[in-house]
Specification:
Strand content: 25-35%
Number of helices: 7
Order of helices and strands: EEHHEHEHEEEEHEHEHEE
Number of strands: 12
Shape: globular
Helix content: 25-40%
Number of domains: 1
Strand order of the largest sheet: 5-4-3-9-10-12-11
CATH class: Alpha Beta
Length: about 240
């Protein structure tokens, strides 16, 4: 088994455990690079974080390295969840609770989930593309989970399901939401719906913690100190 290091996280995987596209992204360092760069604008010391869409656990592990942070993370795909368990264990993170499952708004129900070769394409959307198999998952109510665990930060990368989830959930006591938008699945109209739904809950788009499709929404915390941009030299 090869031990990769991706964004400072130990990743003990072999090339045959993920698709060629995922392996190339891991070995080149491009895997979830925007999320890795921006997530610390959303997560602060001693936060209690709910992450939806663990993937293989790299962003989970980055979050968990923040001082005093506790993380509850959910991954719907059972084989991906198994890889994430390995990554989290390899980084000696005892402050992460990882579960295989799915959180939704409303009463628990049975939902289909479509497993695809590229783990980042697996989703609840049957029409997103060819899939390897369909599995059934019993959902957990997100608002109850947030209340029961005193969550204050929500991080998610759930392949388009954020549109329905953010529109229908109440998100009690959440201060910051960091997510990847998937405009190729729901267009600008979907982004408008998400923005309007979060604005109605008291959240504003925060450009200081956003990077392209990886965006931060936050409650009003007043004016922050100016953070100068760092520009990379180009040829």
């Amino acid at each position: 088994m090869e031990l990769l290091t991706v964004h400072g996280i130990r990743v003990p995987l072999t090339s045959d455990e993920v698709s060629p596209a995922i392996w190339q992204a891991l070995t080149s360092g491009s895997y979830e690079a925007k999320e890795a760069k921006s997530v610390f604008k959303a997560v602060r010391p001693n936060d209690r974080v709910l992450e939806l869409g663990t993937g293989i656990g790299i962003i989970t592990s980055l979050i968990a390295k923040a001082p005093g942070v506790r993380v509850w993370s959910f991954e719907a795909n059972p084989s991906t969840a198994a890889l994430a368990h390995r990554v989290i264990s390899a980084n000696d993170l005892g402050n992460v609770v990882l579960a295989q499952g799915i959180l939704t708004a409303g009463e628990p129900c049975i939902l289909p989930f479509y497993v695809r070769e590229d783990l980042w394409m697996s989703s609840m959307d049957k029409n997103q593309g060819p899939y390897q198999r369909e599995i059934s998952l019993v959902s957990i109510n997100i608002d109850k989970f947030i209340a029961d665990h005193a969550i204050n930060v929500l991080v998610m990368d759930i392949e388009g399901a954020e549109r329905d989830l953010l529109g229908r959930s109440e998100l009690p006591h959440i201060e910051r939401i960091f997510l990847e938008l998937h405009d190729h699945l729901y267009g600008l109209s979907g982004i408008r719906e998400i923005t309007q739904a979060l604005a109605a809950k008291g959240f504003a788009y925060d450009p200081r913690g956003s990077n392209g499709p990886c965006v931060l929404f936050a409650k009003d915390e007043g004016v922050r100190e100016f953070e100068p941009e760092v520009f990379e030299a180009t040829d």
